[in-house]
Amino acid sequence: MEPPHGSASTREPPVDEATTSRGPSPQAASERRRLAARLEDGLDASDRWLHLLQDVVLVGVAALMLVMGVLVLVNGVGDLIGTVTVRVGDGGTVDVRVGNGRAVVEVAENALLALILAELVGTLLLSIRGKPLTIEPFLVIAIVAVVRHLLFVTVGASDNPVAQTAELVGLGGLILLLVGAVVLLRWVPVRKR
Length: 193
Description:
Layout: H1 17-22, H2 26-83, E1 84-88, E2 94-98, H3 101-128, H4 136-155, H5 161-187
Antiparallel strand pairs: 1-2
Helix pairs in contact: 2-3, 3-4, 4-5
């Protein structure tokens, strides 16, 4: 036999309409706000520390590259001085001679390497200052690197002149493409999102 309709055994406890429409209790809402505020403070602190650590790493890398660039430049100047001979003749004439062509090209390669390192340091400094990175410095670095390789291929002896000529033509074409990209970047306005 079923209990009569509305008896105590099947009846649910009365629901307070005001409590369910208001949501959680004021104490629970206050606790959630405090927890969210602590979490936000923790995230802000970790964000500051991570940015500081990133800046320290960038400054360290920039300083290392700058020292490397100075060493390469000093080495290049030393090599250049070593390849030049100066002789003073009997009648007061000065004779200046440069050793071999390969040494001069090595000096040029060192100078280009120092230029690449200087460009990279400049790019790192932009990042440290919080400015957005653009593609143009990397294109300039690529152009200098290809020119440096072009010098190396030009001076190097090759058993296969056809392959060397093909490589020189390819490198020349790559330089033209990179220069064209730099020109396009300067002429065509970039849309900001």
